[in-house]
Amino acid sequence: MTAHRITLIPGDGTGPEIVEATRRAIEATGVAIEWDRQEIGVPAIAKYGTPFPSAALESIRRNKVGLKGPLTTELGKGFRSVNVALRKEFDLYANLRPAKTYPGVRAPMGNVDLVIVRENIEDLYAGIEFDIGTDELRTVRETIEHVGKTKIREDAAVSIKYISEMGSRRIARFAFEYAKANGRRKVTAVHKANVMKFTDGLFLRVVGEVAQDYPDIEFEDRIVDNMCMQLVQKPELYDVLVLPNLYGDIVSDLAAGLVGGLGVAPGANIGANGVAVFEAIHGSAPKYAGQNKVNPMALMLAGALMLRHIGEYPAGDRLERAIAAVVAVGKDVTFDLKPDRDDPTAVGTSEFADAVIAELEAVRA
Length: 365
Ligand code: NAD
Hints:
Layout (H helix, E strand, L loop, with lengths): L3 E6 L5 H13 L5 E5 L4 H7 L5 H10 L1 E4 L13 H8 L4 E7 L12 E7 L9 E2 L4 H14 L9 E2 L5 H17 L4 E6 L7 H13 L6 E6 H10 L6 E4 L1 H14 L7 E5 L5 E5 L16 H13 L3 H17 L19 H16 L1
Parallel strand pairs: 1-2, 1-3, 3-12, 5-10, 8-9, 8-10
Antiparallel strand pairs: 4-5, 4-11, 6-7, 11-12
Helix pairs in contact: 1-10, 1-12, 6-7, 8-9, 10-11, 11-12
The structure holds nicotinamide-adenine-dinucleotide.
The site of nicotinamide-adenine-dinucleotide (NAD) has 19 residues, from loops.
């Protein structure tokens, strides 16, 4: 059996602790993995003087799969977000965020099992912004006033939203392929095409065209504001959602809230050239760093997504079942999963991993 080579990025804050817990749980599935440990972000600046050392980028390019701890974004001038920069570097255009209720996790809604597919590159997130008082903004304003016959106030800053056919087609294709490969019944396109007729209208049209290639998967669309209300009232009606970048960002956190919060929500960023980076949705929770305290469940669930991504489906399923079993019993869980956050019986990050590993070993025995 040849080992899978995977780039392991510990991140910073509580990242190294949850990454170590997840690495151990993944190894307990029995899948052979050779970890290629690399630093990105704050720890890389301290060591190499740059948040993106070329060795780390080369490693991701070579191995094509990464498991990443959270990265603190406040890096000073020149870097808005290492996470956004990483997405751009590898054209990680698809952000996959499953949101599922697990018994034992307190969640406001009953049975939720949604998959959010968010376009990760375009839209208002592309960073095309013009600051107030700049020459660039003056040129943009004059051009828009000329071609758009619309007056923009002089005290306004401007962001540009763009949505392309190519970007919409590949995210739609990703959503339908994901639905097909994972036995999902329906894809819902989420948009605001009634108001943004050109950008969101294009997105809706293209997703609809792609849907025609998947006659076995139901297709429908919803306007984003209505979608938010419906997700709170009747999430069981929905299955896979595909959204442009900004709506995807907001709706996926809403979906995470429906199933118990960011502490239990995994994510994956998947690119055109086969590169995929798996992570928790939450950040580096720096106030708990080094305390063996936070919940590694979200990153472990991302680990299960990663195992399936590299073709190790049974191992991915086993890992998810083991996490679910530990959480359902509710004994060896971190403080955030206890009814009372001050419960002295809460275990630490590494003991949660021990419980998951024991569960995996019990099933194997
Ligand atoms: P955060 O998610 O780090 O923490 C918010 C709160 O959520 C924490 O105080 C904690 O109470 C709770 N929490 C988060 N993860 C938890 C876990 N695993 N177990 C238990 N409780 C948990 O959000 P923040 O404080 O806004 O961000 C901290 C840093 O992380 C910022 O620099 C932010 O930009 C960055 N960030 C990185 C990523 C990423 O790497 N993908 C994502 C989001 C935020």
